[in-house]
Write a structure and sequence with these properties.
8-stranded parallel sheet, alpha/beta
């Protein structure tokens, strides 16, 4: 980062918070710069989720539930972002007879009951995650306990493998997603509604933008999950080879929203190896409003990367439902470590922001961050503003996608994505 000769004092933590909620939102939420990314109870133990929640409560940041529903361990006092996945846990019901094992469908009445809880501050529709985009997942039957079944709304035993399909059944098109956003906003009493995705095909996000413009329904936030995201339960090929990296996905979505004149209505949250103060500042410079992190929160809990997440034999008690292993995780100690990690990281980020000559995170711009380039034998230098101007995912002028007078300012790839996106939107 390029420091300033005239640094500013570190801004107050309250000044660094970000208000999430667009024009249609009745209950906007003030979020911290760094928060706990989506990790489900069931995948994580009750002790691990409790420590995360109590740490978030102590530190004043939010705790994303992951798609595994709302458990009693999520309701210990922290602000909660409810992640609604394809299994509709805590907001769905089993389909009888099912077309496939574990089939579920959205239940508006149950959703409204849980969405209006005071702990729930925002609702996030999960479209995909960086570690295994378009894959779905299974919670093995041998990991399901009565508490997990209650959190997910699975009904009485015997339980079978808990299925999260690769795609949603509540909608099947870009227009359908926008209707679902509007429905959840109404059922929740006007809380911020957004969606989480790992960018794959650019033209499909362009189709979402067409749907936003035509319907007038715009999400309050979009969470961009990077393809570098990790989980112990993802197929290796998916984790290694699918999904756009966080910074590329962020550049692209930020640019598309600017080109559609929608950026001021949508907050961008990014997750993907945000583990330090500088990593956070770099994401702000790339276009993010705030960040989530899972990997570093796992380390704060004591993860040793034993790679036994899907086996129910995690030696640290983090990803197991076996009481003798879970009991090894001291909730009070780990909650304090979670809070301390977040506080130290945000403090470091704010110190860097002041050193850049900025009074608040909102003033961080892309021309303040530099990187080595391949020019001049590997000794070239470019800043992120140059990168965003010349890169494949270039930053567009405001309104360039919707103003015919600015069409000649569009790079050819954006013209193609916008046209294909319009076809996808109309066809669906």
């Amino acid at each position: 980062a390029g420091h300033s000769m005239f640094p500013e004092p570190m801004c107050d933590l309250d000044e660094a918070r970000v208000l999430v909620g667009g024009p249609a939102c009745k209950q906007p939420y003030s979020a911290a710069l760094l928060n706990i990314s989506a990790m489900s109870y069931g995948s994580l133990s009750g002790s691990a989720v409790s420590a995360l929640n109590l740490g978030a409560k102590k530190g004043g940041f939010y705790h994303n539930t992951g798609e595994g529903g709302i458990s009693k361990y999520h309701l210990l006092g922290a602000d909660v972002v409810w992640n609604v996945g394809t299994g509709y846990f805590a907001c769905g019901k089993n389909v009888e007879p099912p077309a496939f094992k574990g089939q579920r469908e959205f239940d508006p009445e149950l959703f409204a009951k849980n969405a209006t809880r005071p702990e729930i501050k925002m609702i996030e529709i999960k479209l995909s995650q960086g570690a295994k985009p378009s894959h779905g997942g299974i919670l093995p039957a041998n990991k399901i306990t009565p508490v997990i079944a209650d959190a997910r709304g699975l009904g009485p035993p015997p339980w079978s493998d808990c299925n999260s399909p690769p795609r949603h059944s509540a909608f099947s098109s870009p227009a359908g997603l926008m209707k679902f956003v509007a429905q959840l906003r109404e059922l929740s009493g006007g809380k911020p509604i957004g969606f989480k995705m790992c960018v794959g095909r650019p033209e499909e996000f362009a189709a979402l933008c067409h749907a936003m413009i035509d319907s007038g329904t715009v999400p309050d936030f979009i969470t961009i999950d990077g393809g570098e995201g990790g989980t112990g339960a993802a197929p290796a090929e998916f984790q290694d080879s699918l999904g756009m990296p966080a910074r590329d996905g962020l550049r692209f979505i930020n640019s598309m929203l600017i080109g559609c004149n929608l950026r001021d209505q949508v907050k961008l949250i990014v997750a993907g190896k945000v583990y330090s103060g500088f990593a956070l500042v770099r994401m702000l410079a790339t276009g993010a409003d705030l960040c989530n992190t899972a990997r570093s929160m796992m380390f704060a809990l004591g993860c040793i990367q034993a790679l036994k997440c899907n086996s129910n034999h995690c030696p640290t008690g983090i990803t197991t439902q076996q009481p003798h292993l879970e009991s090894g995780l001291d909730v009070g100690t780990k909650a304090l470590r979670v809070a301390n990690y977040q506080e130290a990281t945000v403090h470091s980020a704010l110190e860097i922001i002041g050193a850049l000559g900025c009074k608040s995170p909102k003033e961080v711009t892309s021309d303040m961050i530099y990187r080595r380039s391949a020019t001049n034998g590997g000794y070239g230098v470019e800043n992120y503003a140059d990168l965003q101007a010349e890169a494949y995912f270039a930053k567009l002028p405001e309104g360039a996608l919707v103003d015919p007078a600015k069409k000649d300012q569009l790079p050819p790839q954006y013209v193609g994505w916008w046209e294909k996106g319009g076809e996808i939107y109309k066809k669906a």
